[in-house]
Design goal:
Strand content: under 5%
Helix content: 40-55%
Structural class: mainly alpha
Strand order of the largest sheet: 1-2
Order of helices and strands: EEHHHHHHHHHEEHHH
Number of domains: 1
């Protein structure tokens, strides 16, 4: 099974999907990366208002360093803000038993959640996971899935993210209208001493970075999601005959 190792290297503005079966080109719409301002999206100032990307980065770094329990935690927390990449990474870790015991039922539920907006790669993995479950596990999916969606589904996760984005933007601009005027934003300095600069407010607060709908569209475009407003719900229980009889 190909692994969904989720590395968003924002400095290089690209995803790395080390999967021989699929490769990066079938999973990523590179045109959606055109014009990305790496200095902004890497900055502490940006991450303050985007806990999804901050926690995804921390999860990716923890996973690469072999701190798998921490990676699980970061990806799950990023999933509370609707980050589909992190939800898929958490699903994979549950499925494979990375950073803890394997849990195929929760692994499927989280991959179903990652595929909620129709990203083709996550849909394919979700179906592969479903085929590997037995009848009892499929029943457990239906029993447990609703509670996961109630906490992590887009219906609650995206408004949660939007509230953080708006609060941070309002604090930075001092305006509830979103007007930035002649504002300049200090990006802050990261651990490597980068992004220590001032940028114009209209550049920092570009719609695709701070407007919740435009931001979600940008994230979905990166994953070749055909319908960002679509939903994928848990299906009805199917009766599966026991072929061992």
């Amino acid at each position: 099974m190909g692994r969904v190792v989720l590395l968003l290297a924002l400095g290089a503005a690209q995803f790395a999907w080390p999967s021989a079966a699929s490769g990066v080109d079938c999973c990523l719409d590179k045109s959606a990366l055109r014009g990305i301002d790496a200095a902004i999206v890497q900055s502490p100032a940006f991450e303050d208002g985007h806990p999804d990307m901050r926690l995804r980065r921390l999860g990716t770094e923890a996973r690469a360093a072999g701190r798998l329990e921490h990676a699980r935690s970061f990806f799950r927390r990023a999933g509370r803000f609707g980050d589909k990449l992190s939800q898929a990474a958490y699903a994979e870790m549950l499925w494979e038993g990375e950073g803890g015991e394997a849990d195929p039922v929760l692994g499927y539920i989280w991959m179903d959640l990652a595929a909620e907006r129709g990203a083709p790669m996550f849909l394919a993995l979700r179906e592969r996971y479903w085929e590997a479950l037995d009848a009892r596990q499929r029943e457990q999916v239906l029993d447990q899935g609703r509670a996961v969606y109630a906490e992590y589904g887009d219906e609650v996760a995206l408004p949660r993210l939007a509230r953080v984005m708006r609060r941070v933007a309002n604090n930075v601009t001092g305006s509830r209208t979103g007007w930035v005027g002649t504002l300049e934003v200090y990006l802050g300095q990261d651990a490597d001493g980068a992004s220590d600069a001032l940028v114009r407010g209209d550049r920092f607060f570009a719609d695709r970075y701070w407007d919740p709908d435009a931001y979600r569209q940008w994230q979905d475009d990166l994953l070749l999601t055909p319908n960002p407003r679509g939903r994928v719900n848990l299906g009805e229980l199917e009766q599966v005959e026991d072929e061992s009889r």
